[in-house]
Design goal:
By secondary structure, the protein is an alpha/beta fold. It is built from 14 helices and twelve strands.
């Protein structure tokens, strides 16, 4: 028992050290996560140490091991809020998932008089569904050649009606590690948007969740560099796909994201304000990073510090004034690593002339906090 518990502690410490040194993702492992890794490792050691006992007890040991490992996984999942239910873990299709090809690409458009918002004149037509629909789509990097994975689209009830209003678009970037499906599963994006739509007679933004990393552990820094042309993908390819495939208002685009995605949203709003004049930065870093400044500059810019500073948001904010643009920073009150960075980025953004807000929400660096942030960011 003593040896196995000690071995479990060593495995937990090593896992934290590997993440700290190898940097498969820039965030360190929290102590709570390290603890549950150690518990699972200790249980595995105890089970292997009992391998010579009788078959009946051996079955009991295996069942006990599975229970402990499953509990550890549930505890880690609960910390991050990564998968809300078993269907998400197993990758089962959601009840609101459709094939985008089955949604009419062109429909009669409802219009509002000049100077009036659509909400002032919109009345839901007969047959409009009560909830929105999600669809998995191919969103290729035609210009950027970015090696993207499949994206997701959320279509609110009003978009599925006839006539349909020309709705604004929110582009949401997931965190790293992970993928586009995280905003649908961990972030509960459709639930948040459906609640908003229910309170506004079916009106809500169309939401697109593209891939900005290319793989689960990939980190492009959301820039055009030797790591990939993620910036061009989000600023050129994604808007072009929207124009070609959806009836939306291209003049009203916003970008948001969580963690890596939050940093990405701030970068795009600063570097491409002509495309994304507003942003939602949920627990993003103050600067794009692969773990630390030296490693980032070496891997993405061949050691050229000036090239990195040319695209680093905080440096851009110090040398550039922005006559327009708006955004919201959101971060968990218990997020020790990212709370100070959110404050730093918000102060720098205000200093450059943008209209921004900062909200601190209950929780830490988790998807449950990100879900709350998305809900709070929508207009009331």
């Amino acid at each position: 028992m003593v040896v196995c518990v000690a071995a479990g502690a060593v495995v937990g410490a090593l896992s934290a050290a590997v993440v700290e040194v190898a940097r498969p993702f820039p965030d360190p492992l929290p102590l709570r996560v390290v603890f549950w890794v150690a518990v699972a490792a200790a249980a595995t050691g105890l089970a292997l140490a009992r391998r010579s006992i009788r078959r009946r007890r051996g079955v009991a040991v295996v069942l006990a091991l599975l229970a402990v490992v499953a509990t550890s996984a549930v505890k880690v999942n609960a910390f991050y809020g990564y998968r809300p239910n078993l269907a998400g873990v197993l990758g089962l299709p959601a009840g609101n998932e459709v094939d985008l090809a089955d949604v009419p690409r062109i429909a009669p458009l409802a219009t509002a008089p000049a100077g009036q918002p659509m909400s002032a004149v919109w009345r839901s037509p007969p047959g409009m569904p009560r909830g929105g629909r999600i669809a998995r789509v191919d969103l290729p990097g035609r210009v950027s050649r970015f090696p993207d994975r499949q994206a997701w689209v959320y279509l609110p009830p009003a978009y599925l009606a006839s006539p349909r209003p020309r709705l604004p678009v929110l582009v949401m970037v997931p965190g790293q590690p992970g993928g586009p499906e995280d905003w649908l599963l961990a972030g509960r994006l459709a639930e948040v948007m459906d609640r908003f739509a229910a309170a506004h007679d079916g009106l809500a933004p169309v939401v697109v969740v593209p891939d900005a990393t290319g793989s689960s552990l990939g980190n492009t820094l959301c820039l055009d560099s030797r790591l990939g042309a993620a910036e061009t993908y989000l600023a050129v390819d994604v808007p072009e796909w929207l124009t070609a495939n959806l009836q939306v208002d291209r003049d009203r685009l916003a970008i948001g994201g969580f963690s890596f995605g939050g940093t990405c949203a701030l970068q795009l709003a600063l570097r491409r304000p002509d495309v994304y004049p507003s942003f939602l930065d949920i627990a993003g870093q103050a600067e794009p990073t692969l773990g630390d400044r030296a490693q980032t500059v070496r891997a993405a810019f061949g050691g050229d510090e000036a090239a990195f500073r040319a695209v680093n948001p905080v440096d851009e904010l110090r040398r550039t004034r922005y006559p327009s643009g708006a955004g919201l920073f959101a971060v968990g009150r218990d997020d020790a690593d990212f709370r100070s960075q959110a404050r730093e980025a918000a102060d720098a953004t205000r200093g450059a002339g943008l209209t921004v807000g900062l909200v601190e929400l209950p929780g830490g660096h988790s998807w449950s906090m990100a879900t709350d942030a998305l809900d709070r960011a929508l207009p009331r």
